[in-house]
């Protein structure tokens, strides 16, 4: 099979490019403003120190891990329908991770100290492990792409893909552990957050991949027709796993005196957090499941709902977990701010930084697709039908 | 062919003089800095490296801490140049006053593992200062990706402002909400307490004063007050007669809890006692032996350096 680079033929492509470039530029301006003026121009404060930028960043990082589903299906599990999509899968994964990390970097109080973050490791810190996991993920994605694009390296394809599969599961576990290991906060300290993050990553990444393939199919011709039904089935399983783990988390919390307040806060009394929780459960979980029951017919609509639901769910976990007052004085009512739900209203710069990071990820992907022959020939079967597709190197 | 040795010699001398002046100009400020640093070190009572033989601690008697008194907060803000703006949510609070009311319905919020389990505190109002608890096993140190959060051998938990990248993971990890992120530009900093926009900070236990055998500013303020008219000096004059006794001399350990009608600028009533918990002869160790004291979130087994009595 001959792979092709993306041709900028359609007007909608150029419009999308202009829109993404504008968002990326606005994100850069927002980051600059936050750096110069300080974080007081954001809605974040000393109670809610991680806000909207972190929701966007984590969504992108988790989606990066899940976006590699197609590559794993093609090169680890040998599913022929996914072979034409392996290159796109790896490029999308690397781009999404880069976008997520960019947001995290630019949100730092001292982004100029990146070199310190890279050279001073505290190995008891889950955050420091994650930095290593992120770098390893980019490295493995690059090695996998090298094996895909370079016929002599193709013999390393399966092992590289298997390593990448293991690595991304560890990476998402690490992302969950950032919160799961925090003993101080009842909204965070739960081992079940680790598998929950894996399920979220698989669902978010699967959804991001489906939507990206949809956009590229519009410009390039249908590239994922053969894999769509299976993508839908996988996405449904991942959504179901996410819903089940979420239900288990809150059910167990309700029976735990140390965490019952958080469960009640999320499920019943948390105001906007409660609304977001049920919205993600129903509109980002149950509804897409119902849509996907029709075997891929509504994959793209379901994928869009999953991404919206994922952002809402991450907001509940990340921000809601900080907003609830800390249980420092059990059995006592605490007067003042320390005893109340912490205020947090995200500001425009935060949204722009988050959206700018996502836009940068997509720009990177489109740039890579313009240069590299990563898209299969268009067709109803996405090119998978002919001899297992994906050509000599890419298919295995 | 003629030469002009005198002219060459003159030029050489001129060049040598210029080089000497340049070198002196370049090196002198550095030497001066070294001189200042040496002088500063020799001024410190204890210029030796800190060791874990000392464990600095703070004992807070909540019975002596009045609801309407914030002398400790004001002293901390003044000592460290913490400005109070119109944005309380982002203002740094290294120490904050907290007022608690006993929950009569037994509906404990959150972790109740160190709760009394009865209603003896129902309706009881308690006031206390909340600050970094200087844990022996500090979660903020565990989670810091660069190691900027660290614990000194003598138990003081600090942030290295040069390696803090401002990720705020430690702020989330702290069980006491005792850390703050610097959200805006800083002005009029105190040279002994350098801060940095975009970095995280928290109570240093006034480490700069401790290293000069002085008490933390909050302790000094609390014991300077006229809460019961029987306080023991401001501590600034106390150069200490040993590493582990610098604080007790400044700190009253008795007093009543009736704080009505005080001057609000001078309201401290000796609720704070600072000292070396490892020294059996110290007042704080004696008080800890004499009456039970609580650690906040004792269920986490962090072995805090700040303890509370009558809570």
Description:
The complex is a heterodimer of chains A (396) and B (311). Chain A has 396 residues and is an all-alpha fold. Chain A is built from 14 helices and 1 strand. Chain A has helices at residues 11-37, 52-67, 69-75, 86-107, 114-119, 126-149, 157-180, 193-220, 225-254, 260-269, 272-292, 299-323, 348-371, 391-394, and one strand at residues 332-334. In chain A, helix 3 runs antiparallel to helix 4 and helix 9 (225-254) packs antiparallel against helix 11 (272-292). Chain A is globular. Chain B has a single domain (8-309), classed as Alpha-Beta Plaits (2-Layer Sandwich). A 3-stranded mixed beta sheet of chain B has the order 8-1-9. A two-stranded antiparallel ribbon of chain B has the order 2-3. In chain B, 44% of the residues are buried. Strand 1 of chain A pairs antiparallel with strand 2 of chain B.
List keywords for this structure.
heterodimer, A: 396 residues, mainly alpha, B: 311 residues, alpha+beta, Alpha-Beta Plaits, 3-stranded mixed β-sheet, 9 strands, disordered N terminus
Describe the structure in brief.
The complex is a heterodimer of chains A (396) and B (311). With 396 residues, chain A is mainly alpha-helical.
Beta-strand share of residues of chain B:
5-15%
Give Rg of chain B in angstroms: 25 Å
Helix share bin of chain B: 25-40%
Q: What percent of residues of chain A are in strands?
A: under 5%
CATH architecture descriptor of chain B:
2-Layer Sandwich
Q: Could you say which overall geometry of chain A the principal axes of the C-alpha atoms support?
A: globular
Please name the CATH topology of chain B. Alpha-Beta Plaits
Order of helices and strands of chain A: HHHHHHHHHHHHEHH
The oligomeric state is heterodimer
Mean pLDDT of chain A: 92
Regions with little confidence, pLDDT below 50 for 5+ residues of chain A: 382-396
């Amino acid at each position: 099979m001959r792979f092709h680079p993306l041709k900028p033929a359609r007007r909608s492509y150029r419009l999308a490019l202009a829109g993404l470039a504008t968002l990326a530029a606005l994100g850069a301006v927002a980051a600059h403003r936050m750096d110069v003026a300080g974080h007081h121009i954001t809605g974040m404060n000393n109670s809610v120190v991680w806000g909207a930028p972190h929701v966007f960043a984590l969504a992108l990082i988790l989606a990066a891990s899940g976006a590699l589903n197609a590559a794993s299906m093609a090169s680890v599990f040998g599913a022929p329908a996914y072979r034409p999509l392996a290159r796109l899968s790896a490029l999308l994964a690397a781009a999404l991770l880069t976008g997520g990390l960019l947001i995290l970097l630019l949100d730092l109080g001292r982004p100029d100290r990146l070199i310190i973050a890279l050279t001073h490791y505290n190995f008891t810190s889950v955050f420091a492990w994650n930095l290593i996991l992120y770098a390893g993920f980019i490295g493995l994605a690059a090695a996998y792409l090298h094996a895909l694009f370079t016929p002599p390296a193709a013999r390393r394809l399966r092992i590289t893909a298997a390593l990448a599969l293991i690595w991304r599961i560890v990476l998402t576990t690490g992302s969950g552990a950032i919160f799961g290991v925090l003993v101080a906060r009842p909204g965070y300290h739960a081992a079940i957050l680790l598998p929950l993050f894996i399920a979220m990553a698989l669902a978010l990444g699967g959804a991001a991949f489906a939507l990206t393939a949809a956009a590229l199919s519009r410009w390039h011709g249908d590239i994922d027709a053969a894999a769509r039904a299976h993508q839908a089935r996988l996405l449904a399983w991942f959504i179901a796993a996410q819903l089940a783990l979420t239900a288990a988390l809150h059910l167990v919390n309700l029976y735990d005196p140390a965490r019952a307040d958080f469960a009640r806060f999320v499920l019943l009394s948390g105001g906007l957090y409660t609304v977001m929780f049920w919205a993600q459960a129903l509109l980002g979980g149950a509804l897409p499941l119902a849509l996907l029951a029709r075997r891929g017919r509504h994959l793209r609509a379901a994928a869009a709902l999953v991404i919206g639901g994922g952002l809402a769910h991450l907001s509940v976990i990340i921000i809601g977990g900080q907003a609830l007052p800390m249980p420092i004085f059990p059995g006592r009512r605490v007067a003042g701010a320390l005893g109340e739900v912490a205020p947090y209203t995200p500001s425009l710069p935060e949204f722009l930084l988050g959206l700018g990071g996502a836009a940068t990820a997509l720009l990177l992907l489109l740039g890579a697709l313009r240069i590299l022959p990563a898209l299969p020939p268009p067709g109803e079967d996405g090119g998978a039908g002919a001899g297992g597709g994906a050509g000599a190197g890419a298919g295995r | 062919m003629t030469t002009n040795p005198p002219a060459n010699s003159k030029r050489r001398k001129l060049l040598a003089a210029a080089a000497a002046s340049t070198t002196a100009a370049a090196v002198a400020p550095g030497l001066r800095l070294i001189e200042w640093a040496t002088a500063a070190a020799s001024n410190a009572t204890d210029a030796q490296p800190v060791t874990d033989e000392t464990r600095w601690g703070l004992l807070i008697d909540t019975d002596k801490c009045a609801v309407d008194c914030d002398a400790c907060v004001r002293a901390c803000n003044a000592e460290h140049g913490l400005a109070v703006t119109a944005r309380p949510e982002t203002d740094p609070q290294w120490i904050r006053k907290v007022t608690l009311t006993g929950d009569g319905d037994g509906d404990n919020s959150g972790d109740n593992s160190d709760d009394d389990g009865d209603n003896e505190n129902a309706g009881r109002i308690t006031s206390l200062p909340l600050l970094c608890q200087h844990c022996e096993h500090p979660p903020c140190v565990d989670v810091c990706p660069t190691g900027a959060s660290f614990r000194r051998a003598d138990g003081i938990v600090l942030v290295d402002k040069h390696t803090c990248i401002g990720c705020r993971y430690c702020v989330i990890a702290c069980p006491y909400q005792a850390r703050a992120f610097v959200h805006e530009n800083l002005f009029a900093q105190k040279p002994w307490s350098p801060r940095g926009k975009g970095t995280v900070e928290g109570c240093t236990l006034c480490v700069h004063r401790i290293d000069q055998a002085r008490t933390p500013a909050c302790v000094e303020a609390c014991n300077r007050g006229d809460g019961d008219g029987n306080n023991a000096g401001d501590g600034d004059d106390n150069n200490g007669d040993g590493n582990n006794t610098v604080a007790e001399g400044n700190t009253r350990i008795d007093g009543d809890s009736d704080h009505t009608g005080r001057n609000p600028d001078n309201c401290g009533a000796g609720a704070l006692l600072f000292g070396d918990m490892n020294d059996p002869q110290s007042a704080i160790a004696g008080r800890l032996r004499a009456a039970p004291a609580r650690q906040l979130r004792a269920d986490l087994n962090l072995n805090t350096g700040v303890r509370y009595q009558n809570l």
